[in-house]
Structure formats: structure tokens, C-alpha cells
Amino acid sequence: MNLPDKYIAKMKGLLKDEYEEYIESFNEERLHGLRVNNLKIDTEEFGKIAPFHLDKIHWISNGYYYAKEDLPSKHPYYYAGLYYLQEPSAMTPAELFGIEPYDKVLDLCAAPGGKSTELGAKLKGTGVLVSNDISASRAKSLLKNIELAGISNSIVLSETPEKLSNYFPEYFDKILIDAPCSGEGMFRKDNSMIKNWSEESVEYYSDIQNGILPFAAEMLKPGGYMMYSTCTFSPSENEKTISKFLDEHEDFELANLPDFDGFDRGKTEWSSSDKYDLSKTVRLWPHKIKGEGHFVALLYKKESETTKIFKKYKMDTREKEYSVFVDFEKEYLNVKFDRSRLQVINEKLYYMPKEIPVLKGLRLLRTGLYMGDIKKNRFEPSQAFACSLTREQFKNIVNLDIMYDNVIRYLKGETLQVEGAKGWNLVCTQNYPLGFAKKANNLLKNKYYPGWRYM
């Protein structure tokens, strides 16, 4: 492994007697992780049906290692949103955060969506998840992963933290900042990152992190929690960033994170101050756990007597504007949607989260669940809507057997000749929804979204 001399010197200073163990970890193969989507399936149940070689990740309740030859990204269960492929250590922040139903949650640097999809699963369709990434191109992949996961209570944005802070003053119960960083913890996983490392890049990212945290703090309610994480080892981007933030924000304090076998703790000597108990933070090293490098800190915002007020978004759609959806609902659905949360925007129907701010002026990729298009005399349901449903919620089902090639043919966008009720059908495999199709003249016209098709 051709590591830069300055990086080697730094790591020897950080790890001391453990340095050789760290270097030896580069000779081991990187590990592949799979996190079960508990919005769609229980972890234990997934373990029974999964056709992969799986080993449990001991500190992640719904996480598994898988053998790379299994290729889970090619399996129909991936297209049903039953799991997300994620590096094991990267699962840690969302696992440790303690998200509760009805929380209002912000994932500030969210793309491609690994942490957002788990935060959304923990909300169980309640509260609101705001997922943001400043990169518009990366935010598109974030949106796809949120929709594939079946998350119905999300808002997806591509904005700066500064601008968001003007719209969400003291709005969120929980905020996750998986901050941009120099990526030292990912060197084994992605060797190409090594050539981009420099001491200057560490300082560059440290400045970005120090710029993000204050705006996030403005959006957190008193009594709320903010989690900061990176995939790097540099104290300048971890302990020093946290201690600098605490120096400047007396209304925050560190909260403790749990211990698991192989976890290391942050150290005060790597901080810019000795005032804070940085042993409450967590470090993951690739020579100590079966995963890559990570750092996690949990911050608590102290209670306050004053609370800022945000301007609430008001629904203004009348039922006549979505009357074709009401007809669709009566004909095809076994569930009724809250009329007060239905909103028509540019002939598209959305199911909005409750109690959200006015969002005009923000770069929005999605506001709520995109349910489908309002046509002149009909409703055309969307792929995102299909992913949000369960088999029991739709009347007409075409259930494709996982063992036969009709599943892949459907995912490739082909027309199928299968039995089914006339009109709209929710296409499933083993009772897990994949998308929609429309039955006419003994043929199942494929409505699977072209941009998601099996390759």
C-alpha cells in the first residue's frame, strides 16, 4: 500500500503501538455490508428468505456481511427495496442515533441515501424526514434510494445549510451530519482516495465541517440531538471540530454513545481543548472491527424557555382537483389516504408530511410522496407510490415467483402474458411490491420506471 509519507507519520503519532496492526489491515479484503429495510421486512424474517451467505454485524441490529460473489444488487429483492447495500461501519451513525416515531429528522449531507433510508425506516412512516445534499446530481441518487425504500414522509432537497437554516429554525428533533471529509477511513475500500489525500485537504474539509455545524445547530430544537460523523481519522476533522463547536455553543454538550466490542473512544489529547469528555465519542478502526474507519459524536442541545416559530405550509388543494385519484382509490386500494395531506402541484399528486414549513424558494427534488399524475379523466400511479405500498393495501396483485424469469423480464420493462385482474395491478415477487402494470387483452402492460430497470 503506497501511503503518503506525511500520512504515515501522522498515523504513527495517532496509533503508536497499534500502527503495525493498522497497516496489516490493508492486506485483508474489504467487507461488504447489507442493511435490512425494516419498513418492508423484519430482520429475522429476511434472514430466513435471503438466498445469500450472511453473517451478522454484531453492533448493527439489522446489518449483515455478505459474500461479494452473491451479487445482491442483481437480485429481485434489491429491486423490491428489502435491503440497502452499505459499508458496515457507515451503518453506525443511524444505528446509534435513537430515532423515535414522530420525530422530525434532518439528514443534512445525505447522498446517496444509506443513512437517510435507515432514518426513514426508524420513523415508520410517521413524523418527517428531510434529506438534503448540496450536490444536485448526488441528490438525484438520494431521491431514488428513498423512493425505492418506500419512505412516504420525506422531503428531498439540494441546498446549502445556511439557506436551510432560514426555513427550519429550531424545527428538528434530530439532525444527522455525515460531514464531507478527507476519507482516510475508506483508503482500504477505495485505494483511489489515497492519491487525493494531503494535509491541505484535511484542513480544507475541516473548514467545511466548521462551517456546517453552526447552521445545523440553528435548526435543532432545544432538547434535541445532533449527530456528527465522518469516515476519517484526522483529529482536525473529528475531536478538534467537536471541541471548537462546543467552545462556540454553550447551549450544547456531548452525550454518551454506547460501547460495542471493538469500539474505540475519542481522546481529549487530540482535541483543541481539555474541557470536554471526548471519551463519549466513538472511533472505529479497521484493525479493531470488521469494517472501515469512522468517527461518531452525539451532541445534546440544552432545554430553553424560548422557541423560534416556523411558518407552516398550508395545503390548498380541493378534492375536485384530485377526484380521479379518489376514483382510483375506491377501485384499487384497501387503504384510504388522509385528504388533508393530499396536494396537487403541476398536475402531480403528492402525499405531504404533517407540519412542514413553507418551502418556496428552495431547490426541491421531492416534497412528500409522489403518488402519481392527475390526467384529464384518470390517475396514473407512480413507481414511488408502488414502492410505498404493501401487498395488502392493493386489491389487484400479480405475484411473480422469485424462481422464474418473469420477475427479471418485468424489471427489464417487458410486456408479460400472465393471469391477473383487468386494469391496474401491483406487481410483486413473493408478495413484496416491485411496481405497477396494467392488464388489458390478456397482456400485462409494464409500467416499471425506465430509469430503474434491471441491467
Summarize the structure in words.
The chain has 455 residues and is α+β, with helices and mostly antiparallel strands. It has three domains: 88-301, 3-Layer(aba) Sandwich (Rossmann fold); 314-351 and 358-388, no CATH class; 394-455, Archaeosine Trna-guanine Transglycosylase, Chain: A, domain 4 (Roll), CATH 2.30.130. It contains 13 helices and 22 strands. Strands 5, 6, 7, 8, 9, 10, 11, 12, 13 and 16 form a ten-stranded mixed beta sheet that branches. Strands 2-3-1-4 form a four-stranded antiparallel beta sheet. α8 packs parallel to α9. The mean pLDDT is 95.
Offer a few descriptive terms.
ten-stranded mixed sheet, four-stranded antiparallel sheet, 13 helices, Archaeosine Trna-guanine Transglycosylase, Chain: A, domain 4, 3 domains, alpha+beta, 25% helix, 455 residues, 24% strand, single chain
Q: What number of structural domains do the residues give?
A: 3
CATH topology of the largest domain: Rossmann fold
Helical/strand content category: alpha+beta
The largest sheet, given as strand count, sense and whether it forms a barrel, is: 10 strands, mixed
Task: Indicate the percent of residues in helices.
Answer: 25-40%
Radius of gyration: 23 Å
Count of DSSP strands: 22
The N- and C-terminal alpha carbons lie at a distance of: 34 Å
Number of helices: 13
Mean pLDDT: 95
CATH architecture of the largest domain: 3-Layer(aba) Sandwich
Q: Give the CATH level 1 class of the largest domain.
A: Alpha Beta
**Approximate shape:** globular
Uncertain runs with pLDDT below 50, 5 residues or more? Answer: none
- Strand percentage lies at 15-25%
Considering the protein shown, what is the CATH homologous superfamily of the largest domain? Vaccinia Virus protein VP39
